[in-house]
Amino acid sequence: MTTVLKTEDLRKQFGQLTAVDDVSIEIDDDKITSIIGPNGAGKTTFYNLLTGVLEPTSGSIWLRSGEGDELADVTDAEPHEVAQAGLSRSYQITNIFEGLTVRENVRVARISHEGTRLDFRSRATGDESVEADVEELLELTGLTDIADTPCDTLSHGEKRTVEIALALAIEPNVFLMDEPTAGMNPTEVTEIVSLIRELDADLDATFVVTEHNMDVVTDISDRIVVLAEGSILADGAPEDVLTDERVTEAYLGSDSV
Ligand SMILES: Nc1ncnc2c1ncn2[C@@H]1O[C@H](COP(=O)(O)OP(=O)(O)OP(=O)(O)O)[C@@H](O)[C@H]1O
């Protein structure tokens, strides 16, 4: 077991409101960790701090870029620096080029990670390693059959899968998945849950998930961290956390799960 991501007394205040209240946590590489909590608990703010989108009020963030590396302080890093350091986040569809095919999107993400200046529309890129990586990413995420489909004709579930492929294109050491099943129908939910499980088994990346669907959380998590009012309320195995009275009360006191 290795710690891949760590926060120490991480805090974010918006004026008088403390959205993340001195959170100290260590994420280990041998588990899928879900970070859950009622509305307004601070999950999005916490993710935004981890990815460099927001600057912490105080505290620190540490990230391990790959096997054998030491934890590095990324507290003050910009979002692109955090991504380069090995932390990827699936944004809800916002970074898909709708007019391009699935393969072209994955190629753009891969090339932009490689920093290679190539015309991604050209078939004759000449860069076989990029093409091999693209095909591998398509295969890993089950997108090979729809690789030539323009993204603007895909279903919502297919787009969410493309988004996962794009996040994986940077070869993350830690992959933050933001509500991976949001807006999906039950069949799509089942498919994405089994995809996440397969990816977790096939890749070295460590998965951290926020999710409102409790069936998915129960199904997918080895560890659940519950945030409430910016603090960690509970942290442990699903069977312990989900039966914890304080957790039930925190959810009952909010207007949604
Ligand atoms: N930019 C901001 N300015 C002021 N307050 C903010 C800002 N962003 C978030 N907040 C507040 O911080 C608290 C935590 O919000 P956050 O969005 O992180 O919670 P969340 O757990 O992600 O909620 P949800 O599940 O509803 O998305 C809330 O009270 C919210 O209103």
From TrEMBL:
Domain ABC transporter: 5-254
GO BP terms, alphabetized: amino acid transport
Keyword terms, alphabetized: Amino-acid transport, ATP-binding, Nucleotide-binding, Transport
Record GO terms (molecular function): ATP binding; ATP hydrolysis activity
CC annotations in GO: plasma membrane
The organism's place on the tree of life at top rank: Archaea
Gene3D superfamilies reported for this sequence: P-loop containing nucleotide triphosphate hydrolases
Biological function: Probable component of a branched-chain amino-acid transport system.
Family: Belongs to the ABC transporter superfamily.
Protein name: Probable branched-chain amino acid transport ATP-binding protein LivG
Species name: Halorubrum distributum JCM 9100
